[in-house]
Specification:
The complex is a heterodimer of chains A (111) and B (113). Chain A has 111 residues and is mainly β. Chain A has no helices and eleven strands. In chain A, a hairpin with a 6-residue loop joins strand 9 and strand 10. Chain A is globular and about 40 Å long. By secondary structure, chain B is mainly β. Chain B is built from no helices and eleven strands. Chain B starts with a strand and ends with a strand. Classes of the chains: A mainly beta (111), B mainly beta (113). Chains A and B meet through strand 5, strand 9 and strand 10 of A and strand 5, strand 9 and strand 10 of B.
Chain lengths: 111, 113
């Protein structure tokens, strides 16, 4: 069974706008990771946030984590056509590196 | 290119046949993972190795599935007596102990007819 659930399932925005996607999970975690998947490059790691962190930035990406609500959000600012992809959250429960994945958010950036 | 490689990229087989996939991880990585992904879903964990030892197997991995990693280098995933429900993308990833980020290969797409 899958631990994470992304919301929305699909998101279509204009280039230049910000995109926000959310992930909820069920059990306590050691860390939460976001990955991007497109047909050209496969699955690529974007950012990791540990359970004792609340916010993290990497370039145009901002990730927040609320362990009390068991949720995380990924914000992509100033979106580009190249950001078109599916975005997955993956949770690492007890640092044995077994990742449990959500079903993903499909993001389409319109030119 | 020193990333994770998987072969073959595509495999079409008839129900009941056996298939074997290969994964070559990034050479410095001692951990290797196998996942299965169906259309519209996230990857599902199957198994992982630390060096040559298979440390964990998902209950998804029925007796028809077996994975090996001889000498702690490349890994093979074999599916015996394939069923149509085995049709999926099989993904391999690798990492270094202490590094949570996993590096994925391009996957092997299996179609069972």
């Amino acid at each position: 069974s899958q631990q994470g659930e992304e919301d929305p399932q699909a998101l279509s925005i204009q280039e230049g706008e910000n995109a926000t996607m959310n992930c909820s999970y069920k059990t306590s975690i050691n860390n939460l990771q976001w990955y991007r998947q497109n047909s050209g490059r496969g699955l690529v790691h974007l950012i990791l946030i540990r359970s004792n962190e609340r916010e993290k930035h990497s370039g145009r990406l901002r990730v927040t984590l609320d362990t009390s609500k068991k949720s995380s959000s990924l914000l992509i600012t100033a979106s580009r056509a190249a950001d078109t992809a599916s975005y997955f959250c993956a949770t690492d429960l007890d640092s044995n590196y077994q990742l449990i994945w959500g079903a993903g958010t499909k993001l389409i950036i319109k030119p | 290119d020193t990333g994770v490689s998987q072969n073959p990229r595509h495999k079409i087989t008839k129900r009941g046949q056996n298939v074997t996939f290969r994964c070559d991880p990034i050479s410095e990585h001692n951990r290797l993972y196998w996942y299965r992904q169906t259309l519209g879903q996230g990857p599902e964990f199957l198994t992982y190795f630390q060096n040559e030892a298979q440390l964990e197997k998902s209950r998804l991995l029925s007796d028809r599935f077996s994975a090996e990693r001889p000498k702690g280098s490349f890994s093979t995933l074999e599916i015996q007596r394939t069923e149509q429900g085995d049709s999926a993308m099989y993904l391999c990833a690798s990492s270094w102990t202490g590094d949570h980020e996993q590096y994925f290969g391009p996957g092997t797409r299996l179609t069972v007819t």
